[in-house]
Amino acid sequence: MPGLEVAPSGLEVRQPGPLSLIQDPGRFGVAGLGLSQGGPMDLHAFCWANRLLGNPMSGAMLEITLGQASFFAHQDMTLSLCGADMQAKIVSNGEARPQANWRSFPLKAGEELQLGTAVSGLRAYLAVKGGFQTQAILGSRATVVRNKLGGTNGEKLTKGAVLKVSDNSQTNLNVSCTNKVPDRYQPNYSDPVTLELLHGPQYMDYTLEQLATLFDTRYRISPNSDRMGIRFEGQAVKAGPAGMISEGISAGAMQLPPDGQPIILMSDRQTLGGYPKPFVLSRYSQWCLVQCMPGTEVSFVPGDLTHASKQWQEFVRFFELFE
């Protein structure tokens, strides 16, 4: 009827925290346009969040960095939360109850999911059954702020934004909709961090003595890190080849700029780079790295390409990632 207000639906952002983004697996085949791939920093936690809900792996969800975020349900829905422990709780009628991590759970209309500061890990993934229904740009909903693409107008989430959810998000909440990731697949983000390095395109351009610095040094993650690249502080690696022609960059590639301080390039990396890349981080090590707080000390070790490839193939098959 004219003048009749329609009640809002979906999930409202009450507090976005320092950085909350809509992400799906990423925007593929766009490097030729100079655009970043985007996608989740921690694909392991992302995939489990979708699997808990029976979503396709293309389902879009929220990547929440550091925490301090809250979300209000305008309708019944089923969510899942994986990744960093942000001391989640659900507030209903003024009462709060804790919500365990690495699980799916119901959120009823009028309830609010509140996330505190991350106490273990750095990034959490909040998924809804059916995925968040934002506009797809170039085949993806992934947010890349530097390209102003995806998500909500190519920007991080802001207070008051209401995220549309799928029509099938309203699971019968009288039926148990709680699933749990098996304990053996839940990482302990407090464990010492050891990162596996595989040979990169410029590996042969360095001497063994130069590269030994990487394996003999404990590096500290710099606060000057972001979704484009994780920077390290520690013993500088002596200068390698000069005058390189810029070339394509893969996820996890280790760049060594003139100052000798390593940079691991991540989801929002540039498409081309002219610094040498002697190593590439294994997939599993990438997901471990992105859950580390700035200031965390890490060690590098030589990785085995055959083993790393087998791990990745098993992961892709298990989650039916690209089908």
From TrEMBL:
Residues 32-319 form the Carboxyltransferase domain. It comes from the Bacteria. SMART domains: AHS2 (SM00797). InterPro entries: CT_A_B, Cyclophilin-like_dom_sf, PxpC. Keywords: ATP-binding, Hydrolase, Nucleotide-binding. The keyword Hydrolase applies. This is Biotin-dependent carboxyltransferase family protein. It comes from Shewanella submarina.
